[in-house]
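Hey there, shall we discuss this one?
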Amino acid sequence: GMNAAVRAVTRMGIYVGAKVFLIYEGYEGLVEGGDNIKQANWLSVSNIIQLGGTVIGSARCKAFTTRAGRLRAARNLVEHGITNLCVIGGDGSLTGADIFRSEWGGLLEELVRDGQISEEVARENCRLNIVGLVGSIDNDFCGTDMTIGTDSALHRIMEVIDAITTTAQSHQRTFVLEVMGRHCGYLALVSGLASGADWLFIPESPPEDGWEDLMCERLGETRSRGSRLNIIIIAEGAIDRSGKPISSNYVKDLVVQRLGFDTRVTVLGHVQRGGTPSAFDRVLSSKMGMEAVMALLEATPDTPACVVSLSGNQSVRLPLMECVQVTKDVQKAMDEKRFEEAIQLRGRSFENNWNIYKLLAHQKPAQEKSPFSLAILNVGAPAAGMNAAVRSAVRIGICQGHTVYVVSDGFEGLSKGQIREVGWHDVAGWLGRGGSMLGTKRTLPKTCMEKIVENIRKFNIQGLLVIGGFEAYEGVLQLVEARGQYEELCIIMCVIPATISNNVPGTDFSLGSDTAVNAAMESCDRIKQSASGTKRRVFIVETMGGYCGYLSTVTGIAVGADAAYVYEDPFTIHDLKANVEHLTDKMKTDIQRGLVLRNEKCHEHYTTEFLYNLYSSEGKGIFDCRINVLGHLQQGGAPTPFDRNYGTKLGVKAVLWMSEKLQEVYRKGRVFANSGDSACVIGLRKKVVAFSPVTELKKVTDFEHRLPQEQWWLNLRLMLKMLANYQISLTEYISGKMEHVTRRTLSIEKGF
């Protein structure tokens, strides 16, 4: 994701009229100067967004840790008249930048004394502004939700786990997987949660003494219940209660000696740092790069050095040294064996992940049998992450003592009585499966209401969890509106939005849209490669999404598209003409390729075919055109780590909410719920998990086009156009606010 950040900072800098320099080889290049500091133009950062690592290099630098080294660095910056520095790196690099900034005045005075620069030059460059972007695969920087590179590292880890699971299953093996994270267990934790690992070691929470017996007992239990494999995930910095390291080989030998299982160790190592960046990382870095430039432009002598971060889907600025301080506090708490506190300082979502992992990894007998029955179904088109949500919902329901049924084939299956009770182990191994294991249909309840009611009565269902797209929301709305006729529908209902289109009201993100964006992005990367080879070629790529332009907009940002046509951002023939001229100009430069995305229903008359004909005839002699319709490959594939994790959490939160509501409306041995808040959509809004009554959401829904009336992601289109070199006004750009990072802010329930 670093390249996407370099690209965004460079282009935004040029866009606002600044001179932008790229410094090669990190601080080493800053100290050495010379050819390591080069002015950049728009094309310097072309075609790098899909590359892993960083094209401007990075190096650990001894010299910069000394004052003499920083003096040379200051001189090199002053020579080029650079007074704004954007640093992309981990906490070490960022702390170094802050020291450099605090010494700046003194360093310039020294340069004047030595006669290396004049007093006038020192006056002109009297202030150094710095802004940081956190690039670290460990996600170990406190205060930031996600650091650049974390999501891509999780993609690499999940690819390996998926591959290993198949071989382990065939050979009935146990695998010990060691992932990176010397001081931070984030990667191990999320990959453990997203793969349903049997046991997990993280530095923040060492296992209780005597863990060896407990672990072996658990692994043996899983096998005796019919599982053919065990996966154990261990962070490289794992320790026991006394602070002694736990190595992967120690764990392996333990399993072999005690249980005699065929056991293998796989150390993932630097695989996790490589590979092509995920869509999330590309979009995150692009947003953060734009915000970093704005932060530098708006800096005053009084603003502290800040890091740019994302909170939910909003950009924020955080004082650099506050983040560094809390990050050091975590390490100190771990060194002093205050482990509970270390987990809390990592922030609320880390704590949530850890608690949910412990909840779902092993069956704990329910305290008592509850009187309630829940039914779970999938509705609409398949979306990745549906199975993860079903799995966690089933398991949490069982933990609470409910009777849990699953329904095949959506509302149609509910009307035909395709309903069966499930146990804890029936959903083992579902996490990594794409599509819908239960089967899903688009049928709406109004076509078979009588029969649905009959089965709800027959199975005595008091809670309905519907996981699906717009039809799931519309279907539950129909059931609620039929409550007047059928008392059986006065039950608790919840919708988990799961659709690649991301068009369900009540949530910023639907389950499955992250996987779909990654699938579309991978295809577009290949298409771009083909266009780069043939030269002077423009590809017109059609994406899915119904009327919702989320998929094409976000994919467009992730692949650096020249334009993305969507229904929500109306366009006319004049806009199309401007786009063609823009591409004609682009062909005169060194980048002789174009990529235009079109959402399938963005315009009634300007179809993909029409665009192809228009571009072909207008571009005649300058470029030729090709069409690519991505189609159903956007629905398929293994779920991304985000969707596995998100599905798991939504499943847990939805069932906990349903249980609470069922208790509230349980009177004299029966459930009767007819208030608006007894049927909700669960979703992520800004950064909290919210439950919105379907009857309320009805008021903000455009049913004809199956869209929410207001969509947050439309403000991303500004970035898409700016990065594609269109002249746009920045008056609509919303700058991030400065927020503080303290123990209190970290403990706030983020929801996700």
Summary: The chain is about 40% helix and 15% strand. The first strand starts at residue 21 and ends at 23.
